[in-house]
Amino acid sequence: MRQSTNREPLVAELGKIAKAEPPSCTSEAWPSKSMHSEIVVQPAESVGRRIRTDVASVSPWSAPIIWEGTFDATLIDSIYKQQNLTIATTVFALGKYTRFIKGFLESAEHHYFVGFRVHFYLFTDQPKSVPEVKMGENRSLTVVKVQSLNRWQDISMNRMEKLEKLIENELAGEADYIFCLDVDTMFYGRWGAESLGRLVGVIHPWFFDAPRDQFTYERRPESLAYIPAGEGDYYYAGAAFGGTLEDVHTLTKTCREHLNIDAANSIEAVWQEESHLNKYFLLNKPSKLLSPEYMWRGINERAAAIKKVRFANVPKNYAEVRPNA
Ligand SMILES: CC(=O)N[C@H]1[C@@H](OP(=O)(O)OP(=O)(O)OC[C@H]2O[C@@H](n3ccc(=O)[nH]c3=O)[C@H](O)[C@@H]2O)O[C@H](CO)[C@H](O)[C@@H]1O
Ligand SMILES: [Mn+2]
């Protein structure tokens, strides 16, 4: 977690969520087969397992928010498998971040879109240091060489332009959806077709339970990432977002343009491209939101609402791993 000092006080707030009563519906409450022979009656417990009352599972604009307990993985897989999809997945590893590649790719083999066609695009300044990872059927890796950069902020921000160009130049006709992920991460649980949508944002793990005035949006009106006090829906993670090629292309192009305009005006948003992503999602609401299960703080971190950790940060020593402090 970067600059955790800013965000740690929020942890105290976690775990305060009241434990909700289990859903009260019983099998008697549902139509019986004899009355409605055309209706497939779900066993009450299987319906109940897809109800969460301790967290919001829909946004104010009616986008689903995906939490463990809100979907049936087998059913979702059977729907999406028929569509013969390809999921492009991008990840960047420059400088010392190449050390995270192996854990990312190996854990993805076990948990990320298992059974689907997945094409990873790994951007690195050191293609020779990419380890050999045995990949399953229908899964492939393309390594893209990029220029080294001296500031971690530039590495992070520059991703928007690289993604924009990748979608423009390489992905048309090659993929249906794209996810763009941080590399200092590992998968620990299923991340599958339940995450697919036109425009998908992940609720940031340090802010899912925080009041809006604590969100670290860019607050200076001089930046195009500016969000005034009292505005904003959620605080989204910069470390994971996705959607269809068209929607993610527009997102990355817009963020890249805004980053460039800010740079020309000598201003860098407080959290770089994450700030611009948050502005974009304020103006262009995601069609689906993923809970912080999909970008958790770390495998050993706990919070009452997190029933399953799917994807989490790997601890790192910022001073040691980044090119600049
Ligand atoms: C959980 C979360 O939302 N994390 C965000 C946060 O992260 P982090 O503190 O997780 O930032 P970070 O250091 O992981 O940098 C983001 C990413 O840039 C790449 N990288 C960075 C430095 C480097 O020397 N080499 C390299 O390859 C790598 O893919 C890394 O995963 O802030 C960043 C910049 O504001 C991004 O918005 C991240 O997505
Ligand atoms: Mn990271």
UniProtKB/TrEMBL annotation:
<dbReference type="GO" id="GO:0016758">
    <property type="term" value="F:hexosyltransferase activity"/>
</dbReference>
<dbReference type="GO" id="GO:0005975">
    <property type="term" value="P:carbohydrate metabolic process"/>
</dbReference>
<keyword id="KW-0812">Transmembrane</keyword>
<feature type="binding site">
    <location>
        <begin position="182"/>
        <end position="184"/>
    </location>
    <ligand>
        <name>UDP-N-acetyl-alpha-D-galactosamine</name>
    </ligand>
</feature>
<keyword id="KW-0479">Metal-binding</keyword>
<keyword id="KW-0735">Signal-anchor</keyword>
<feature type="binding site">
    <location>
        <position position="216"/>
    </location>
    <ligand>
        <name>an alpha-L-fucosyl-(1-&gt;2)-beta-D-galactosyl derivative</name>
    </ligand>
</feature>
<dbReference type="Pfam" id="PF03414">
    <property type="entry name" value="Glyco_transf_6"/>
</dbReference>
<feature type="binding site">
    <location>
        <position position="97"/>
    </location>
    <ligand>
        <name>UDP-N-acetyl-alpha-D-galactosamine</name>
    </ligand>
</feature>
<keyword id="KW-0808">Transferase</keyword>
<keyword id="KW-1133">Transmembrane helix</keyword>
<protein>
    <recommendedName>
        <fullName>Globoside alpha-1,3-N-acetylgalactosaminyltransferase 1-like</fullName>
    </recommendedName>
</protein>
<dbReference type="InterPro" id="IPR029044">
    <property type="entry name" value="Nucleotide-diphossugar_trans"/>
</dbReference>
<keyword id="KW-0464">Manganese</keyword>
<dbReference type="InterPro" id="IPR005076">
    <property type="entry name" value="Glyco_trans_6"/>
</dbReference>
<dbReference type="GO" id="GO:0016020">
    <property type="term" value="C:membrane"/>
</dbReference>
<feature type="binding site">
    <location>
        <position position="184"/>
    </location>
    <ligand>
        <name>Mn(2+)</name>
    </ligand>
</feature>
<feature type="active site" description="Nucleophile">
    <location>
        <position position="274"/>
    </location>
</feature>
<dbReference type="GO" id="GO:0031982">
    <property type="term" value="C:vesicle"/>
</dbReference>
<keyword id="KW-0328">Glycosyltransferase</keyword>
<comment type="similarity">
    <text>Belongs to the glycosyltransferase 6 family.</text>
</comment>
<feature type="binding site">
    <location>
        <position position="182"/>
    </location>
    <ligand>
        <name>Mn(2+)</name>
    </ligand>
</feature>
<dbReference type="GO" id="GO:0046872">
    <property type="term" value="F:metal ion binding"/>
</dbReference>
<dbReference type="GO" id="GO:0005794">
    <property type="term" value="C:Golgi apparatus"/>
</dbReference>
<feature type="binding site">
    <location>
        <position position="204"/>
    </location>
    <ligand>
        <name>an alpha-L-fucosyl-(1-&gt;2)-beta-D-galactosyl derivative</name>
    </ligand>
</feature>
<feature type="binding site">
    <location>
        <position position="274"/>
    </location>
    <ligand>
        <name>an alpha-L-fucosyl-(1-&gt;2)-beta-D-galactosyl derivative</name>
    </ligand>
</feature>
<keyword id="KW-0472">Membrane</keyword>
